[in-house]
């Protein structure tokens, strides 16, 4: 799935900008891909739920729109929470 984020944007080292851009750019691509999968699935191969990283908050919006359950997988360490 193409993310549409350019290398110069990623290498800018502006974490907030990269994550915000990623969430804006990837939402329609994920929604289209999941809708296509849902359209061709049979009753034995349904999408059970979406597991996503806490920084990919667009995934929850897509899951809600498609009426799919979702859960956040927190990939940050406990040390990050303390800081």
Task: Find the structural class using helix and strand composition.
Answer: mainly alpha
Strand content: 5-15%
Structural shape? flat
| Spatial strand arrangement across the major sheet | 1-2
Let me know the average pLDDT: 80
Pick out the low-confidence regions: none
Distance between the termini: 33 Å
| Integer tally of domains | 1
- Kindly provide the radius of gyration, computed on alpha-carbon positions and rounded to a whole number of angstroms: 15 Å
Please provide the ordered H/E string of secondary-structure elements: HHEHEH
Major sheet attributes: 2 strands, parallel
Q: Number of helical segments?
A: 4
Extended strand count: 2
Structure description:
This protein has four helices and two strands. The protein has helices spanning 7-10, 15-40, 58-65, 78-82; strands at residues 50-53, 70-73. It is mostly helical and 83 residues long. It has one domain. The protein is flat and about 45 Å long. The longest helix is centred in the first third of the chain and has 26 residues, at 15-40. The termini are far apart.
């Amino acid at each position: 799935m193409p993310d549409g984020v350019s290398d110069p944007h990623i290498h800018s080292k502006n974490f907030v900008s990269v994550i915000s851009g990623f969430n804006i750019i990837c939402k329609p691509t994920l929604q289209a891909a999941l809708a296509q999968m849902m359209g061709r699935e049979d009753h034995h191969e349904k999408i059970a739920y979406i597991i996503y990283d806490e920084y990919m908050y667009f995934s929850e919006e897509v899951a809600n729109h498609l009426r799919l359950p979702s859960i956040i997988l927190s990939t940050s360490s406990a040390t990050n929470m303390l800081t």
